[in-house]
Amino acid sequence: MAELSASILAADLLNLERDIKKAVQSGVKWIHLDVMDGHFVPNLTMGIPFGDAIKKKFDADIESHMMVDNPNMYLERYCSFSKLVTIHYEAPVQTMRVLKEIERLGSMPGISINPKTSVSNIEALLPAVKYVLVMTVEPGFSGQSLIEDASKKIPLLVEYRQRTNLDFLIGVDGGINRDNISRIAALGPDIIVSASAIFSGNVEENVKSLKSCMKENGNG
Fold first, then answer.
1. 10 Å Cβ neighbour count for 76?
2. Are 32 and 5 in contact, with CB atoms under 8 Å apart?
3. Is residue 131 part of a domain?
4. How many CA atoms lie within 13 A of 47 on its CB side?
5. Buried b / exposed e along 39-72 (16+ C-beta atoms within 10 A)
6. Which domain holds residue 182?
7. How far is Cα 211 from Cα 2, in angstroms, rounded to an integer?
8. Can you give the CATH number for the domain in which 61 is found?
9. Nearest-angstrom CA–CA distance, 163 and 36
10. pLDDT of residue 41
11. Cα separation, 27 vs 179, whole angstroms
């Protein structure tokens, strides 16, 4: 059964505590922290102080999604408040070394792939990760439309996990809303990340609606 993760990229940053509180009280167990450096993606967001503050204030698991060229620069600080730290396969780093360092620092190591990156590109890394995040939009901005072909990687990862007896979680992030979350949940992910569909309008009603849609196929 999939869990809902709230990407605060779409929250009201001037009322961030209020919005996160509403999401957590509505049953959201994961807070998705989009970390962008203005280089790997053309946007700049969510530094260390955000994660520190959320960890101190809320009883929720944090995933730091590192959309950055050099995720290893402040890895110790991000691992201090993150249950999951996810780096991108496409980032220009020694990926395996960074994944092992994340695990050494006490967080679950995750790998994320962009819409145009195939599952076969990361097969050699899968024994070293605890999480695979499938991007169904190009990383960098909230409010984009889901790329249908990218979602087809989810059942491929589910099948690969079963066949190899690995235990990584599978997440999906990008363009997920009430119109498509039931179908996405039916593909078998463990974590579904949503941003605008949670934080645009009434947060409590949005979370309730998304969870209800997930349950339509027995996925909530």
1. 13
2. yes
3. yes
4. 5
5. ebbebebbeeebbeebbeebebbbbbbbbbbebb
6. 3-215
7. 10
8. 3.20.20.70
9. 34
10. 87
11. 20
What is the count of structural domains for the chain? 1
The number of residues making up the chain comes to 220
d(CA 50, CA 62): 11
Which residue positions in the chain have pLDDT lower than 50?
220
Catalytic residues: 34, 173
pLDDT on residue 139 = 85
pLDDT at residue 42, as a whole number:
84
The per-residue DSSP string of 80-138 comes to HH-SEEEEETTSSS-HHHHHHHHHHTTSEEEEEE-TTS-GGGGGGGGGG-SEEEEESS-
Distance CA 180, CA 13 (A): 26
What Rg do the C-alpha atoms of the chain give, in angstroms?
16
Q: In this structure, is residue 220 part of a structural domain?
A: no
Q: How far is CA 101 from CA 10, 47, 85, in A?
A: 30, 20, 11
pTM above 0.70, yes or no: yes
Q: How many CA atoms lie within 13 A of 140 on its CB side?
A: 10
Tell me the one-letter amino acid at 69.
D
Q: What is the pLDDT of residues 111-130, one digit of tens each?
A: 999 999 999 999 999 999 99
For position 219, what pLDDT does the model report? 52
Query: Which pLDDT score is estimated for 24?
Result: 97
| Structure tokens that stand for 176 in this block | 């997920």
